[in-house]
Write a structure and sequence with these properties.
Elements (H helix, E strand, L loop, with lengths): L7 H19 L5 H32 L4 H7 L5 H19 L8 H7 L2 H7 L2 H15 L9 H21 L4 H21 L7 H25 L12 H4 L1 H17 L4 H10 L2
Helix pairs in contact: 1-2, 2-4, 2-5, 4-7, 5-9, 6-10, 7-9, 7-10, 8-9, 9-10, 10-12, 12-13
């Protein structure tokens, strides 16, 4: 619903439908870390959900409609200030759902405190839906406006890449490492979003990257799920001898991520798996 929304109200409904079950899943284990993960996820999500609804209200005032086709013709003639405020509020919600800067604060703690299958879900499907939704919004209602939203998206893209990779560099806990890695991935995915509607290959680039990200991220978490006792990178030492199939799978997944630009820390994880 998020990715296919053609109306701001439908976008809000998709956000709520994607968020409420995710809050419950984050605390599914009902232990201390799980409860903390769910609470942090819920508090940040509730706050930015209100910000999103405020942005939708502002865009409704500016364009006299919530439908994308109508907004595409109305927003270029609307006051630039209203369009800018509404766009920034909507982008804040999207970046929360995607786990990008500055809405990324929930990601490390929630991923670490959640069961590994839940963490894999939270860092994959909602991210894909949110970024596809903002691409559609940018390519249609915002395409004719003079608001410098591409500059803002580009800055947030660089911030997500930089912060995510630097934070991952110092992690020893594998789930926190992967969590910060997903933050950096948002930066790379935002690159085609920043040029939405202005090139012939922006949509293809976005879809290609999202598909590659989904496969490799789920693959990395599949290895974590298969080794529930291994919590740090050092715990993966010698796993190649005990579970050679996991090493065979993890290596191409991490190398593919490296080609796409992910933090090199995943390669350290693979190296630990393959050391004798």
């Amino acid at each position: 619903m998020l990715a296919g929304a053609q109306d701001l109200l439908l976008l809000a409904a998709g956000y709520l439908l994607a968020s409420v079950p995710a809050y419950a899943l984050a605390g599914f284990r009902k232990d201390g870390p799980g409860t903390g993960a769910a609470l942090k996820y819920y508090v940040v999500g509730a706050l930015l959900g209100v910000v999103m609804l405020t942005g939708i209200t502002v865009l409704l005032a500016a364009g006299r409609s919530t439908s994308y086709p109508v907004l595409r013709g109305a927003l270029p003639e609307a006051p630039a200030g209203l369009v800018a405020v509404g766009t920034v509020a909507l982008l804040a919600e999207i970046l929360f759902k995607a786990g990008g800067v500055p809405g990324h604060f929930w990601v490390p703690d929630t991923v670490q405190g959640s069961p590994s299958p839940v963490a894999a879900f939270l860092t994959t499907l909602p991210k894909i839906g949110a970024l596809a939704a903002f691409y559609r919004f940018a390519a249609e209602p915002l395409s004719g406006t003079t608001t410098p939203w591409p500059d803002l998206v580009a800055v947030l893209s660089v911030a997500s890449m930089t912060l995510g990779n630097l934070a991952a560099f110092f992690q020893q806990d594998v789930k926190r490492l992967l969590a910060h890695s997903t933050v950096s991935q948002v930066g790379y995915i935002l690159m085609p979003v920043a040029v939405a509607g202005r090139t012939d290959i922006d949509q293809k680039a976005l879809l290609y990257y999202l598909a590659g990200y989904a496969v490799t991220n789920l693959g990395a978490f599949a290895v974590v799920c298969a080794l529930p006792e291994a919590r740090t990178i050092e715990d993966y030492r010698g796993v190649a001898r005990q579970h050679p199939a996991l090493a065979v799978y993890a290596t191409p997944a991490a190398v593919t991520d490296r080609v796409r630009g992910v933090s090199r820390i995943k390669l350290e994880m693979v190296g630990a798996i393959q050391r004798r």
